[in-house]
Automatic annotation (TrEMBL), chain B:
It comes from the Bacteria. Residues 2-126 form the NIF system FeS cluster assembly NifU N-terminal domain. GO terms for biological process: iron-sulfur cluster assembly. InterPro entries: ISCU (IPR011339), NIF_FeS_clus_asmbl_NifU_N (IPR002871). This is Iron-sulfur cluster assembly scaffold protein IscU. PANTHER family: IRON-SULFUR CLUSTER ASSEMBLY ENZYME NIFU HOMOLOG (PTHR10093). Keywords: Iron, Iron-sulfur, Metal-binding. It comes from Hymenobacter coccineus. A scaffold on which IscS assembles Fe-S clusters. It is likely that Fe-S cluster coordination is flexible as the role of this complex is to build and then hand off Fe-S clusters.
Length: 404, 136
Protein backbone atom coordinates (compact mmCIF):
# COMPACT_ATOMS: atom_id res chain seq x y z
CA UNK A 1 0.00 0.00 0.00
CA UNK A 2 1.40 3.36 -1.07
CA UNK A 3 1.80 5.79 1.80
CA UNK A 4 0.91 9.42 1.05
CA UNK A 5 2.22 12.06 0.80
CA UNK A 6 5.33 10.97 -1.10
CA UNK A 7 8.56 12.75 -0.26
CA UNK A 8 10.37 13.97 -3.40
CA UNK A 9 12.14 16.99 -1.91
CA UNK A 10 15.42 15.28 -1.13
CA UNK A 11 17.51 18.28 -2.17
CA UNK A 12 16.04 20.07 0.81
CA UNK A 13 16.89 17.25 3.16
CA UNK A 14 16.98 13.46 3.16
CA UNK A 15 15.52 11.08 5.71
CA UNK A 16 17.95 9.56 8.19
CA UNK A 17 19.11 6.12 7.11
CA UNK A 18 18.22 3.66 9.93
CA UNK A 19 21.78 2.31 9.78
CA UNK A 20 23.08 5.82 10.49
CA UNK A 21 20.76 6.15 13.46
CA UNK A 22 21.96 2.80 14.74
CA UNK A 23 25.58 3.97 14.58
CA UNK A 24 24.67 7.18 16.41
CA UNK A 25 22.60 5.66 19.21
CA UNK A 26 25.41 4.71 21.61
CA UNK A 27 26.75 8.26 21.37
CA UNK A 28 23.38 9.65 22.34
CA UNK A 29 23.27 7.43 25.43
CA UNK A 30 26.21 5.62 27.07
CA UNK A 31 29.09 7.21 25.18
CA UNK A 32 28.30 10.77 26.13
CA UNK A 33 31.80 12.06 26.83
CA UNK A 34 33.32 15.27 25.55
CA UNK A 35 35.73 14.39 22.76
CA UNK A 36 38.08 17.07 24.10
CA UNK A 37 38.36 15.41 27.53
CA UNK A 38 41.80 13.89 27.20
CA UNK A 39 42.12 12.66 30.77
CA UNK A 40 39.51 9.92 31.19
CA UNK A 41 37.91 7.01 29.30
CA UNK A 42 34.62 8.90 28.66
CA UNK A 43 36.48 11.45 26.59
CA UNK A 44 38.62 8.82 24.88
CA UNK A 45 35.55 6.84 23.78
CA UNK A 46 33.95 9.95 22.30
CA UNK A 47 37.18 10.92 20.57
CA UNK A 48 37.46 7.45 19.11
CA UNK A 49 34.02 7.86 17.54
CA UNK A 50 35.04 11.22 16.10
CA UNK A 51 38.33 9.88 14.74
CA UNK A 52 36.60 6.95 13.10
CA UNK A 53 34.18 9.35 11.44
CA UNK A 54 37.07 11.38 10.05
CA UNK A 55 38.42 8.20 8.48
CA UNK A 56 35.05 7.31 6.96
CA UNK A 57 34.73 10.78 5.49
CA UNK A 58 38.33 10.81 4.26
CA UNK A 59 37.78 7.56 2.38
CA UNK A 60 34.74 8.98 0.60
CA UNK A 61 36.41 12.16 -0.63
CA UNK A 62 40.02 10.87 -0.81
CA UNK A 63 41.61 13.15 1.76
CA UNK A 64 43.60 12.82 4.98
CA UNK A 65 41.39 12.42 8.08
CA UNK A 66 43.19 15.41 9.64
CA UNK A 67 41.88 17.65 6.87
CA UNK A 68 38.28 17.47 8.11
CA UNK A 69 36.95 20.36 10.22
CA UNK A 70 33.57 19.57 11.76
CA UNK A 71 30.92 22.28 11.71
CA UNK A 72 27.19 22.64 12.27
CA UNK A 73 26.39 22.22 8.58
CA UNK A 74 27.08 23.46 5.08
CA UNK A 75 26.04 27.05 5.77
CA UNK A 76 28.60 27.35 8.53
CA UNK A 77 31.18 25.58 6.38
CA UNK A 78 30.58 28.03 3.53
CA UNK A 79 30.90 30.95 5.92
CA UNK A 80 34.06 29.59 7.51
CA UNK A 81 35.66 28.79 4.18
CA UNK A 82 35.01 32.16 2.54
CA UNK A 83 35.39 34.49 5.50
CA UNK A 84 38.28 32.41 6.83
CA UNK A 85 40.21 32.70 3.56
CA UNK A 86 39.40 36.40 3.22
CA UNK A 87 40.92 37.09 6.64
CA UNK A 88 43.81 34.68 6.41
CA UNK A 89 44.98 35.80 2.96
CA UNK A 90 44.25 39.51 3.26
CA UNK A 91 47.94 40.29 2.73
CA UNK A 92 47.81 38.61 -0.65
CA UNK A 93 44.62 40.11 -2.03
CA UNK A 94 40.96 40.82 -1.53
CA UNK A 95 39.27 39.48 -4.64
CA UNK A 96 36.91 36.49 -4.66
CA UNK A 97 35.20 34.93 -7.67
CA UNK A 98 31.93 33.04 -7.43
CA UNK A 99 28.82 32.47 -9.57
CA UNK A 100 25.29 33.86 -9.61
CA UNK A 101 23.71 30.44 -9.09
CA UNK A 102 25.43 29.68 -5.79
CA UNK A 103 23.47 28.92 -2.65
CA UNK A 104 22.57 31.89 -0.45
CA UNK A 105 25.08 30.63 2.11
CA UNK A 106 27.79 31.54 -0.39
CA UNK A 107 26.18 34.58 -2.01
CA UNK A 108 25.24 36.29 1.23
CA UNK A 109 28.66 35.55 2.69
CA UNK A 110 30.19 37.19 -0.38
CA UNK A 111 27.91 40.20 0.10
CA UNK A 112 29.27 40.41 3.63
CA UNK A 113 32.83 40.27 2.29
CA UNK A 114 32.02 43.21 0.03
CA UNK A 115 30.89 45.20 3.06
CA UNK A 116 34.24 44.42 4.65
CA UNK A 117 36.01 45.97 1.68
CA UNK A 118 36.51 42.85 -0.42
CA UNK A 119 35.81 42.69 -4.12
CA UNK A 120 33.63 39.89 -5.48
CA UNK A 121 32.99 38.85 -9.07
CA UNK A 122 29.76 36.98 -9.70
CA UNK A 123 30.13 34.96 -12.88
CA UNK A 124 26.99 34.48 -14.97
CA UNK A 125 25.96 31.02 -16.23
CA UNK A 126 24.72 29.82 -19.59
CA UNK A 127 21.26 28.32 -20.16
CA UNK A 128 22.49 24.98 -18.83
CA UNK A 129 23.65 26.62 -15.62
CA UNK A 130 27.37 26.27 -16.42
CA UNK A 131 29.91 29.03 -15.94
CA UNK A 132 32.24 29.92 -18.80
CA UNK A 133 35.88 28.95 -18.25
CA UNK A 134 36.95 31.80 -20.51
CA UNK A 135 35.06 34.28 -18.36
CA UNK A 136 36.62 32.80 -15.24
CA UNK A 137 40.08 33.10 -16.78
CA UNK A 138 39.36 36.72 -17.72
CA UNK A 139 38.11 37.55 -14.22
CA UNK A 140 41.27 36.31 -12.49
CA UNK A 141 43.55 39.09 -11.17
CA UNK A 142 46.73 39.13 -9.07
CA UNK A 143 44.48 40.05 -6.12
CA UNK A 144 42.27 36.99 -6.57
CA UNK A 145 42.65 34.86 -3.46
CA UNK A 146 39.70 32.51 -3.86
CA UNK A 147 37.49 31.00 -6.53
CA UNK A 148 34.39 29.41 -5.00
CA UNK A 149 32.04 27.54 -7.32
CA UNK A 150 29.48 24.98 -6.24
CA UNK A 151 29.87 21.36 -7.32
CA UNK A 152 26.24 20.47 -8.12
CA UNK A 153 23.38 22.93 -8.04
CA UNK A 154 20.62 22.45 -5.49
CA UNK A 155 17.80 23.57 -7.78
CA UNK A 156 18.75 22.05 -11.12
CA UNK A 157 21.45 19.50 -10.29
CA UNK A 158 23.83 21.03 -12.84
CA UNK A 159 27.43 19.96 -12.22
CA UNK A 160 30.14 22.54 -12.92
CA UNK A 161 33.45 21.61 -14.64
CA UNK A 162 35.20 21.46 -11.26
CA UNK A 163 38.60 20.19 -12.40
CA UNK A 164 38.98 22.81 -15.10
CA UNK A 165 37.89 25.55 -12.71
CA UNK A 166 40.42 24.38 -10.11
CA UNK A 167 43.20 24.42 -12.72
CA UNK A 168 42.43 27.99 -13.71
CA UNK A 169 42.30 29.14 -10.07
CA UNK A 170 45.63 27.45 -9.29
CA UNK A 171 47.36 28.77 -12.39
CA UNK A 172 46.74 32.26 -11.01
CA UNK A 173 47.82 31.38 -7.49
CA UNK A 174 44.30 31.42 -6.04
CA UNK A 175 42.69 28.80 -3.87
CA UNK A 176 39.73 26.78 -5.11
CA UNK A 177 36.75 26.17 -2.85
CA UNK A 178 33.54 24.33 -3.67
CA UNK A 179 30.19 24.08 -1.94
CA UNK A 180 29.63 20.36 -2.55
CA UNK A 181 26.55 20.04 -0.37
CA UNK A 182 24.48 18.32 -3.06
CA UNK A 183 27.36 16.36 -4.59
CA UNK A 184 29.22 14.62 -1.77
CA UNK A 185 27.70 11.19 -1.26
CA UNK A 186 25.81 11.36 -4.56
CA UNK A 187 28.59 11.36 -7.15
CA UNK A 188 32.31 10.58 -6.88
CA UNK A 189 34.09 13.58 -5.35
CA UNK A 190 37.87 13.25 -5.07
CA UNK A 191 39.57 16.31 -3.61
CA UNK A 192 42.98 15.29 -4.99
CA UNK A 193 41.91 14.49 -8.54
CA UNK A 194 39.49 17.42 -8.61
CA UNK A 195 42.05 19.90 -7.25
CA UNK A 196 39.85 21.10 -4.41
CA UNK A 197 41.48 23.13 -1.62
CA UNK A 198 38.41 23.78 0.52
CA UNK A 199 35.07 22.01 0.40
CA UNK A 200 31.82 22.48 2.31
CA UNK A 201 29.33 19.66 2.78
CA UNK A 202 26.73 18.39 5.20
CA UNK A 203 25.28 15.18 6.61
CA UNK A 204 21.57 15.72 6.12
CA UNK A 205 21.67 15.72 2.33
CA UNK A 206 23.10 12.18 2.34
CA UNK A 207 20.87 10.38 4.82
CA UNK A 208 22.73 11.64 7.88
CA UNK A 209 21.44 13.82 10.73
CA UNK A 210 20.81 17.57 10.59
CA UNK A 211 23.07 19.99 12.42
CA UNK A 212 26.41 18.54 11.42
CA UNK A 213 28.62 19.24 8.45
CA UNK A 214 32.25 19.57 7.58
CA UNK A 215 34.79 21.74 5.86
CA UNK A 216 37.62 20.02 4.09
CA UNK A 217 40.75 22.18 4.36
CA UNK A 218 43.81 20.98 2.44
CA UNK A 219 46.97 20.47 4.51
CA UNK A 220 49.57 20.13 1.80
CA UNK A 221 50.22 21.25 -1.80
CA UNK A 222 49.33 23.87 -0.72
CA UNK A 223 48.84 24.03 3.02
CA UNK A 224 45.63 26.01 3.45
CA UNK A 225 44.55 27.81 6.57
CA UNK A 226 41.32 29.60 7.36
CA UNK A 227 40.86 32.10 10.17
CA UNK A 228 38.45 30.82 12.80
CA UNK A 229 35.07 32.56 12.83
CA UNK A 230 34.20 31.23 16.27
CA UNK A 231 36.55 31.89 19.14
CA UNK A 232 36.90 29.49 22.04
CA UNK A 233 38.65 26.30 23.03
CA UNK A 234 40.66 25.94 19.83
CA UNK A 235 39.03 22.74 18.65
CA UNK A 236 39.51 21.43 15.12
CA UNK A 237 43.11 22.57 14.77
CA UNK A 238 42.09 26.02 15.94
CA UNK A 239 39.80 26.61 12.99
CA UNK A 240 36.46 25.91 14.66
CA UNK A 241 35.98 26.09 18.39
CA UNK A 242 33.07 24.48 20.16
CA UNK A 243 32.44 21.11 21.79
CA UNK A 244 32.09 18.53 19.06
CA UNK A 245 28.63 17.18 18.24
CA UNK A 246 29.80 13.61 18.70
CA UNK A 247 26.59 11.72 17.79
CA UNK A 248 26.12 13.93 14.72
CA UNK A 249 29.73 13.46 13.68
CA UNK A 250 29.44 9.70 14.06
CA UNK A 251 26.29 9.86 11.92
CA UNK A 252 28.04 11.91 9.24
CA UNK A 253 30.83 9.33 9.16
CA UNK A 254 28.43 6.43 8.83
CA UNK A 255 26.47 8.26 6.12
CA UNK A 256 29.72 8.75 4.18
CA UNK A 257 30.62 5.09 4.53
CA UNK A 258 27.23 3.98 3.23
CA UNK A 259 27.42 6.50 0.39
CA UNK A 260 30.81 5.14 -0.65
CA UNK A 261 29.66 1.52 -0.59
CA UNK A 262 26.29 2.08 -2.25
CA UNK A 263 26.94 5.00 -4.58
CA UNK A 264 27.20 3.02 -7.79
CA UNK A 265 24.01 1.07 -7.16
CA UNK A 266 22.11 4.13 -5.90
CA UNK A 267 23.19 6.20 -8.89
CA UNK A 268 22.10 3.57 -11.39
CA UNK A 269 18.72 3.10 -9.75
CA UNK A 270 18.00 6.76 -9.10
CA UNK A 271 19.02 8.04 -12.50
CA UNK A 272 16.82 5.39 -14.16
CA UNK A 273 13.86 6.46 -12.04
CA UNK A 274 14.57 10.14 -12.56
CA UNK A 275 14.83 9.65 -16.32
CA UNK A 276 11.53 7.79 -16.39
CA UNK A 277 9.80 10.50 -14.36
CA UNK A 278 11.24 13.18 -16.61
CA UNK A 279 10.41 11.38 -19.86
CA UNK A 280 6.80 10.84 -18.81
CA UNK A 281 6.26 14.37 -17.53
CA UNK A 282 7.76 15.99 -20.59
CA UNK A 283 5.19 14.22 -22.74
CA UNK A 284 2.97 17.05 -21.49
CA UNK A 285 2.91 19.82 -24.08
CA UNK A 286 5.00 22.92 -23.31
CA UNK A 287 7.09 21.35 -20.56
CA UNK A 288 10.78 22.13 -20.32
CA UNK A 289 13.69 20.66 -18.39
CA UNK A 290 15.73 23.32 -16.59
CA UNK A 291 19.51 23.09 -16.39
CA UNK A 292 21.96 20.75 -18.03
CA UNK A 293 20.72 17.29 -18.98
CA UNK A 294 24.26 16.15 -19.73
CA UNK A 295 26.12 17.41 -16.65
CA UNK A 296 23.96 16.87 -13.62
CA UNK A 297 23.33 14.99 -10.42
CA UNK A 298 21.62 11.62 -10.86
CA UNK A 299 18.66 12.18 -8.56
CA UNK A 300 17.32 15.59 -9.56
CA UNK A 301 15.09 17.03 -12.25
CA UNK A 302 13.62 20.50 -12.53
CA UNK A 303 10.76 20.94 -14.98
CA UNK A 304 8.71 23.97 -16.00
CA UNK A 305 5.13 23.39 -17.03
CA UNK A 306 4.36 26.50 -19.01
CA UNK A 307 1.10 28.38 -18.33
CA UNK A 308 0.72 26.78 -14.90
CA UNK A 309 1.91 28.62 -11.80
CA UNK A 310 4.25 26.60 -9.59
CA UNK A 311 2.70 27.30 -6.24
CA UNK A 312 -0.77 26.56 -7.53
CA UNK A 313 0.65 23.38 -9.01
CA UNK A 314 2.20 22.35 -5.72
CA UNK A 315 -1.21 22.70 -4.12
CA UNK A 316 -2.60 20.48 -6.86
CA UNK A 317 0.00 17.80 -6.23
CA UNK A 318 -0.71 17.74 -2.52
CA UNK A 319 0.19 14.06 -2.31
CA UNK A 320 3.76 14.93 -3.30
CA UNK A 321 6.30 16.90 -1.32
CA UNK A 322 8.23 18.83 -3.96
CA UNK A 323 9.41 22.41 -4.30
CA UNK A 324 8.86 25.15 -6.83
CA UNK A 325 10.90 28.01 -8.25
CA UNK A 326 7.85 30.20 -7.78
CA UNK A 327 7.88 32.31 -4.66
CA UNK A 328 4.42 33.75 -4.53
CA UNK A 329 4.63 33.87 -0.75
CA UNK A 330 7.59 36.20 -0.67
CA UNK A 331 6.83 39.90 -0.61
CA UNK A 332 8.87 40.49 -3.74
CA UNK A 333 7.03 37.89 -5.85
CA UNK A 334 10.41 37.17 -7.38
CA UNK A 335 10.84 33.66 -8.74
CA UNK A 336 13.98 31.56 -8.31
CA UNK A 337 17.16 33.56 -8.92
CA UNK A 338 18.87 30.36 -10.01
CA UNK A 339 16.38 29.69 -12.80
CA UNK A 340 16.44 33.34 -13.81
CA UNK A 341 20.24 33.18 -14.03
CA UNK A 342 19.80 30.38 -16.58
CA UNK A 343 17.92 32.88 -18.70
CA UNK A 344 14.44 31.57 -17.95
CA UNK A 345 11.71 34.14 -18.29
CA UNK A 346 9.90 34.94 -15.07
CA UNK A 347 6.78 33.09 -16.12
CA UNK A 348 8.71 29.88 -16.84
CA UNK A 349 10.57 30.20 -13.55
CA UNK A 350 7.21 30.59 -11.81
CA UNK A 351 6.03 27.39 -13.51
CA UNK A 352 8.76 25.09 -12.26
CA UNK A 353 8.78 22.07 -10.00
CA UNK A 354 11.86 20.41 -8.57
CA UNK A 355 11.88 16.68 -7.93
CA UNK A 356 14.64 15.23 -5.75
CA UNK A 357 14.78 11.45 -5.41
CA UNK A 358 16.42 9.47 -2.64
CA UNK A 359 17.76 6.04 -1.78
CA UNK A 360 14.31 5.33 -0.36
CA UNK A 361 12.27 6.39 -3.41
CA UNK A 362 10.44 3.48 -5.06
CA UNK A 363 9.20 2.79 -8.59
CA UNK A 364 5.67 2.70 -7.24
CA UNK A 365 6.10 6.23 -5.86
CA UNK A 366 7.39 7.45 -9.22
CA UNK A 367 4.42 5.90 -11.02
CA UNK A 368 2.07 7.70 -8.68
CA UNK A 369 3.95 10.98 -9.04
CA UNK A 370 3.75 10.82 -12.84
CA UNK A 371 -0.02 10.34 -12.83
CA UNK A 372 -0.61 12.91 -10.12
CA UNK A 373 1.44 15.67 -11.76
CA UNK A 374 -0.05 15.06 -15.22
CA UNK A 375 -3.54 15.27 -13.81
CA UNK A 376 -2.84 18.47 -11.87
CA UNK A 377 -1.13 20.22 -14.78
CA UNK A 378 -4.00 19.33 -17.10
CA UNK A 379 -6.61 20.53 -14.62
CA UNK A 380 -4.82 23.82 -13.96
CA UNK A 381 -4.30 24.49 -17.63
CA UNK A 382 -8.03 24.19 -18.19
CA UNK A 383 -8.30 26.92 -15.59
CA UNK A 384 -5.46 29.04 -16.98
CA UNK A 385 -6.21 32.10 -19.14
CA UNK A 386 -2.67 31.92 -20.49
CA UNK A 387 -3.15 28.36 -21.69
CA UNK A 388 -6.37 29.37 -23.44
CA UNK A 389 -4.63 32.28 -25.16
CA UNK A 390 -1.72 30.06 -26.15
CA UNK A 391 -4.14 27.56 -27.65
CA UNK A 392 -5.86 30.36 -29.56
CA UNK A 393 -2.50 31.40 -30.97
CA UNK A 394 -2.26 34.67 -29.02
CA UNK A 395 1.32 35.89 -28.63
CA UNK A 396 1.53 36.51 -24.89
CA UNK A 397 4.64 38.63 -25.22
CA UNK A 398 2.65 41.15 -27.25
CA UNK A 399 0.09 41.76 -24.53
CA UNK A 400 0.49 44.81 -22.34
CA UNK A 401 0.21 43.29 -18.91
CA UNK A 402 -0.89 45.44 -16.04
CA UNK A 403 2.05 44.97 -13.70
CA UNK A 404 1.04 44.96 -10.10
CA UNK B 1 2.04 27.70 4.90
CA UNK B 2 -1.29 26.02 5.42
CA UNK B 3 -4.26 27.07 3.34
CA UNK B 4 -7.66 27.70 4.92
CA UNK B 5 -10.45 25.18 4.29
CA UNK B 6 -12.28 27.72 2.14
CA UNK B 7 -9.25 28.27 -0.10
CA UNK B 8 -8.83 24.53 -0.47
CA UNK B 9 -12.53 24.16 -1.29
CA UNK B 10 -12.46 26.83 -4.02
CA UNK B 11 -9.18 25.50 -5.38
CA UNK B 12 -10.42 21.90 -5.51
CA UNK B 13 -13.92 22.75 -6.75
CA UNK B 14 -13.57 26.08 -8.51
CA UNK B 15 -16.91 27.75 -9.31
CA UNK B 16 -17.59 29.23 -12.71
CA UNK B 17 -14.40 28.34 -14.57
CA UNK B 18 -14.84 29.21 -18.20
CA UNK B 19 -15.16 31.74 -20.94
CA UNK B 20 -17.97 34.07 -21.99
CA UNK B 21 -18.29 35.38 -25.52
CA UNK B 22 -16.33 38.62 -25.32
CA UNK B 23 -17.71 39.82 -28.67
CA UNK B 24 -21.12 40.28 -27.03
CA UNK B 25 -21.97 43.84 -26.11
CA UNK B 26 -23.26 42.88 -22.66
CA UNK B 27 -20.13 40.92 -21.70
CA UNK B 28 -17.35 42.73 -19.86
CA UNK B 29 -13.85 41.21 -19.64
CA UNK B 30 -11.12 42.06 -17.17
CA UNK B 31 -7.60 40.70 -17.60
CA UNK B 32 -5.27 41.68 -14.79
CA UNK B 33 -1.88 40.67 -13.42
CA UNK B 34 1.13 39.56 -15.40
CA UNK B 35 2.72 36.19 -16.13
CA UNK B 36 6.08 37.35 -14.77
CA UNK B 37 4.45 38.20 -11.44
CA UNK B 38 3.04 34.70 -11.21
CA UNK B 39 -0.62 35.82 -11.29
CA UNK B 40 -2.98 36.46 -14.18
CA UNK B 41 -6.75 36.62 -13.70
CA UNK B 42 -9.35 36.89 -16.38
CA UNK B 43 -12.80 37.65 -15.07
CA UNK B 44 -15.89 38.09 -17.21
CA UNK B 45 -19.38 39.28 -16.46
CA UNK B 46 -22.58 39.08 -18.48
CA UNK B 47 -25.03 41.86 -17.69
CA UNK B 48 -28.80 42.02 -18.16
CA UNK B 49 -28.97 45.50 -19.61
CA UNK B 50 -32.59 46.07 -18.60
CA UNK B 51 -31.95 45.58 -14.89
CA UNK B 52 -28.22 46.34 -14.83
CA UNK B 53 -27.82 42.98 -13.05
CA UNK B 54 -24.95 40.54 -13.51
CA UNK B 55 -26.50 37.30 -14.72
CA UNK B 56 -23.35 35.28 -15.25
CA UNK B 57 -19.68 35.44 -14.29
CA UNK B 58 -16.75 33.28 -15.36
CA UNK B 59 -13.04 33.22 -14.59
CA UNK B 60 -9.75 31.68 -15.52
CA UNK B 61 -6.72 32.21 -13.35
CA UNK B 62 -3.01 31.46 -13.59
CA UNK B 63 -1.69 31.67 -10.07
CA UNK B 64 -1.40 30.15 -6.66
CA UNK B 65 -4.24 28.53 -4.74
CA UNK B 66 -5.21 31.81 -3.08
CA UNK B 67 -5.42 33.59 -6.44
CA UNK B 68 -7.61 30.84 -7.86
CA UNK B 69 -9.82 30.87 -4.76
CA UNK B 70 -10.12 34.69 -4.78
CA UNK B 71 -11.32 34.75 -8.37
CA UNK B 72 -13.62 31.77 -7.89
CA UNK B 73 -15.21 33.47 -4.89
CA UNK B 74 -15.51 36.74 -6.81
CA UNK B 75 -17.55 35.08 -9.57
CA UNK B 76 -19.83 33.56 -6.95
CA UNK B 77 -20.43 36.94 -5.37
CA UNK B 78 -20.94 38.75 -8.66
CA UNK B 79 -23.87 36.70 -9.88
CA UNK B 80 -27.14 38.38 -9.05
CA UNK B 81 -25.54 41.67 -8.03
CA UNK B 82 -26.20 44.92 -9.87
CA UNK B 83 -23.18 46.49 -11.50
CA UNK B 84 -23.12 49.16 -8.81
CA UNK B 85 -23.22 46.56 -6.04
CA UNK B 86 -20.37 44.71 -7.74
CA UNK B 87 -18.30 47.88 -7.81
CA UNK B 88 -18.59 48.10 -4.05
CA UNK B 89 -16.88 44.73 -3.46
CA UNK B 90 -13.75 45.41 -1.46
CA UNK B 91 -10.71 43.17 -1.47
CA UNK B 92 -10.73 42.97 2.32
CA UNK B 93 -14.07 41.16 2.17
CA UNK B 94 -12.35 38.47 0.11
CA UNK B 95 -9.46 38.38 2.57
CA UNK B 96 -11.88 37.83 5.44
CA UNK B 97 -14.05 35.27 3.69
CA UNK B 98 -11.04 33.15 2.61
CA UNK B 99 -8.94 33.86 5.72
CA UNK B 100 -6.00 34.87 3.52
CA UNK B 101 -2.71 35.46 5.31
CA UNK B 102 -0.90 38.82 4.82
CA UNK B 103 1.40 37.46 2.09
CA UNK B 104 -1.67 36.54 0.03
CA UNK B 105 -3.54 39.82 0.27
CA UNK B 106 -2.29 40.75 -3.19
CA UNK B 107 -4.44 37.88 -4.56
CA UNK B 108 -7.57 39.58 -3.23
CA UNK B 109 -6.41 42.94 -4.58
CA UNK B 110 -6.02 41.35 -7.97
CA UNK B 111 -9.55 39.90 -7.78
CA UNK B 112 -10.97 43.33 -6.95
CA UNK B 113 -9.00 44.81 -9.86
CA UNK B 114 -10.39 42.10 -12.14
CA UNK B 115 -13.97 42.92 -11.13
CA UNK B 116 -13.47 46.64 -11.74
CA UNK B 117 -11.66 46.01 -14.99
CA UNK B 118 -14.50 43.78 -16.26
CA UNK B 119 -17.08 46.42 -15.30
CA UNK B 120 -15.05 49.13 -16.98
CA UNK B 121 -14.87 47.07 -20.16
CA UNK B 122 -18.65 46.59 -20.05
CA UNK B 123 -19.16 50.34 -19.57
CA UNK B 124 -16.93 51.27 -22.48
CA UNK B 125 -18.72 48.80 -24.73
CA UNK B 126 -21.99 50.49 -23.82
CA UNK B 127 -20.88 54.03 -24.40
CA UNK B 128 -20.08 54.93 -20.81
CA UNK B 129 -16.74 56.35 -19.70
CA UNK B 130 -14.13 53.88 -18.47
CA UNK B 131 -13.58 53.57 -14.73
CA UNK B 132 -10.53 55.12 -13.17
CA UNK B 133 -8.68 51.96 -12.27
CA UNK B 134 -6.23 51.99 -9.43
CA UNK B 135 -3.01 50.27 -10.33
CA UNK B 136 -1.60 48.19 -7.55
Amino acid sequence: MLKLPIYLDNNATTPLDPRVLEAMMPYLTDVFGNAASRNHPFGWAAEEGVDYSREQIAKLINCDPKEIIFTSGATESDNLGIKGVFEMYSQKGNHIITATTEHKAVLDTCKHIEKLGGRVTYLPVNEQGLISLEELEAAMTPQTILVTIMYGNNETGTIQPIREIAKIAHSHGALFMTDATQAVGKIPVDVIADGIDIMAFTAHKMYGPKGVGALYVRRKNPRVKVTAQMDGGGHERGMRSGTLNVPGIVGLGKACELARLEMAADTARLSAMRDRLEKELTTLEESYINGSVEHRLPHVTNISFKYVEGEGLMMGVKDLAVSSGSACTSASLEPSYVLKALGLSDDLAHSSLRFGLSRFTTDEQIDYAIGHVKEAVTKLREMSPLWEMFKEGVDLSKIEWAEH
Amino acid sequence: MAYSDKVIDHYSNPRNVGTLDKSKKNVGTGLVGAPECGDVMRLQIEVDEATNTITDAKFKTFGCGSAIASSSLATEWLKGKTVDEALAIDNMEIVEELALPPVKIHCSVLAEDAIKSAISDYRVKNGLPALELAHH
